[in-house]
Write a structure and sequence with these properties.
21 strands; Aminopeptidase; about 475 residues; single chain; alpha+beta; Alpha-Beta Plaits
Length: about 475
């Protein structure tokens, strides 16, 4: 089906990969296949306790060059259209050519990161490429928590330079990412019994979005808007909930409250103010109000603590990078709130500088403790600070310019990547992330640009020889 595409060796392996189940946390069969290919071509190969696989290939022409680690992840996001019958645990992905693109029939394609896997397997096989010693690192479970990268042991990796093959923009070299961590705030609640007519207030119609990549788009946070309403109408809260996931800007939030007679009028005024503030970014913003029966409310002290805490907690961009123009360096997302015996608030913070991430999470802790709430901090993942003076970056940029007559773009991403974890673990500070053109990953619309795969293969071979020759 893909046999006429170039480079044939890469598409051969990608088609084989498509036949193998590899949803996140179920990478056993793809790991077996990679080990089989490595052994078939005489490579040293091993598997660690969490399922990561590493293989090493001797140099061809440059024995004294530093070892380069080429890294990608084995798992894929398994999503399908509602009208498609497909069992990802056994059914093969069905790729097909659609003009300039390769897509899959009704499911995710798995080009993220299947093309990277195919490139590495092709490099294991070919004999004529010139390069220094190579190390191929295949991690598990990147898509649902970076657990493979977190489970690595330092001694498992021998390479001195790291090239991640999980980028989705050909012609762009990624040079940094954000680290992150969650803060879970728990505020004890005390209630008073009442029997009153109250209001159910719902903020809805917001765009939401990824709390890293889209935190700088100026979108509203439904929980923060709801908190402003509660503060301004002197509400006594009976129930409040909002947000869905720690890594998503909350789109909806709801509270059931008792408030004064003029509350509905004030809410309408606030809705108008919100629509003015977010006229460009939130055209569908709504505040809905309906009457409901209230049988309990927070006591005065607890009510004040909760509303003022929600008003005080930060949300959005906190600092921009001083290294990369236009890059968010540090941010936080007031992600979710639930009430069940206690109010539980989740904050998700990110930064490409680890000390800045620590500072944000410390400030959140201080605000919570002022409200007499407890704070639990989950395990943090480290950031990868952009280094525009990187020697590997210069060689990679020069290699691209030699082939295409122009400079590649250099970007960083305000989200977590395996490179941050691996770099922090190993101490490797010469890192880049590159890849072909992939669009709509994680959805059945996923597609990879055929010509970009051919060009990326050409670029990768040239880059590996140039690194070996010039380092």
């Amino acid at each position: 089906m893909l046999e006429n595409l170039e480079p044939k060796i890469v598409w051969k392996y990608f088609e084989e990969i498509c036949k193998i189940p590899r949803c996140s946390k179920h990478e056993e069969k793809i790991a077996e296949y990679i080990i089989e290919v490595a052994k078939q071509h005489g490579l040293e190969v091993e598997k660690d306790d969490v399922g990561n696989v590493i293989a090493r290939k001797k140099a061809n022409g440059y024995d004294n060059a530093p070892m380069v680690t080429l890294q990608c992840h084995m798992d894929m996001v398994c999503e399908k259209n509602k009208d498609v019958e497909h069992d990802f645990s056994k059914d093969p992905i069905q790729p097909y050519v659609d003009g300039e693109w390769v897509k899959a029939k009704g499911t995710t394609l798995g080009a993220d990161n299947g093309i990277g896997l195919a490139m590495c397997l092709a490099l294991m096989e070919i004999k004529d490429a010139k390069h220094g010693p190579l190390e191929f690192l295949f991690t598990v479970d990147e898509e649902t928590g970076l657990t493979g990268a977190f489970g690595l042991k330092k001694e498992f990796i021998k390479g001195k330079l790291l090239i991640n093959l999980d980028s989705e923009d050909f012609g762009v070299i990624y040079i940094g990412c954000a680290g992150g961590g969650n803060s879970t705030i728990k505020l004890p609640l005390k209630f008073e019994e009442v029997d009153k007519e109250g209001l159910r207030i719902t903020v809805k119609g917001l765009k939401g979005g990824h709390s890293g990549i889209e935190i700088d788009k100026g979108r509203a946070n439904s929980i923060k808007l709801l908190a402003r309403i509660l503060y301004n109408i002197n509400a006594r809260v009976s129930k409040i909930e909002g947000g869905d996931k720690h890594n998503a800007i909350p789109r909806e939030a709801m509270a059931e409250v008792v408030a004064g007679e003029d509350a509905i009028e004030k809410i309408k005024e606030l809705e108008a103010a919100f629509r003015n503030e977010y006229s460009r970014t939130e055209p569908n913003l709504k505040v809905e109000v309906e009457k409901c029966r209230i049988t309990k409310v927070l006591d005065g002290e607890t009510n004040e603590k909760l509303i003022k805490l929600l008003m005080s907690l930060p949300h959005g961009v906190l600092a921009m990078s001083q290294e990369v123009e236009g890059l968010v360096e540090t941010s936080t997302n007031l992600a979710t709130i639930r009430m069940d015996g206690e109010a539980t608030i989740v904050m998700s913070s990110r930064s490409s500088i680890n000390s800045a991430l620590d500072a944000v999470m410390q400030s959140i802790r201080c605000m919570a403790e002022l409200a007499k709430a407890s704070v639990e901090e989950g395990s943090k993942y480290p950031g990868w600070k952009p280094n525009l003076d990187s020697r590997l970056l210069k060689i990679a940029s020069d290699a691209f310019k030699e082939l295409y007559g122009k400079e590649p773009e250099k970007k960083a991403i305000h989200a977590g990547l395996e490179t941050g974890v691996i770099g922090d673990l190993t101490g490797i500070n010469e890192i880049i992330s590159i890849g072909p053109q992939i669009e709509h990953p994680h959805s059945p619309d996923e597609r990879v640009h055929v010509k970009s795969v051919e060009e990326f293969w050409k670029y990768l071979l040239h880059l590996l020889e140039k690194v070996a020759k010039e380092w």
